[in-house]
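This protein record is not my work; I was only asked to verify it. Would you go through it and say whether the fold makes sense for this chain? Here is the record exactly as it was handed to me.
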Amino acid sequence: MFTGIVSAIGRISDIHPLAEGGADAGLRLTIQAPGFLREDTRLGDSIAIQGACMTVVAMQKDAFQVDVSRESLLRTAGLDAKGDVNLEHAMRLGDTLDGHMVSGHIDGTGIVSVFEPVGESWKLRIRLPHELGRYMAYKGSVTVNGVSLTVNAVDDLPDGCEIEINLIPHTIEVTTLKSLRVGTKVNIEVDMIARYCERLLGARAVVG
């Protein structure tokens, strides 16, 4: 479990296929992250990378490795190429919940349609397919590339929706969202509560 509050920005520095499977093979990623690993970080621990929960399979002083399956690569963005990534340790008992409850399970991807400065902040608009758009609500929560954010507007479209988010200077400074451009694909995790509400209401309708 995570909070969507990014702990550090790391960098994917090395990428190696997991097997001789060609296009079907997963990847082993090496993430350089000076000062990020805790003294008690162990093999098997969970770390969110660009919002996707991954398992530590090897580590050095300032770096660690994770294995990413082909299925995960097909459903996420930003885990198949070298570059900066948002990092967050899993929550521990006693940690404060400063963002919102985040599972680290990516529900799908969206496309940046607007990214521009507005005063001291930045306006971010993301187009989402219908299967993600139905979970979006005004002032609801959404996770974008592992960052917990508040939805300021939802515009429904024939093929999905477009959400608008305001990014404060601090968020721009301490996350990889500063690198977004129009057309960039981003990882989306919908609000956990919205997902459970849909399931409960759907089950009730079937029973009724």
Observations:
- The CA atoms of residues 37 and 60 lie 9 Å apart.
- The chain is about 15% helix and 45% strand.
- The chain has a mean pLDDT of 93.
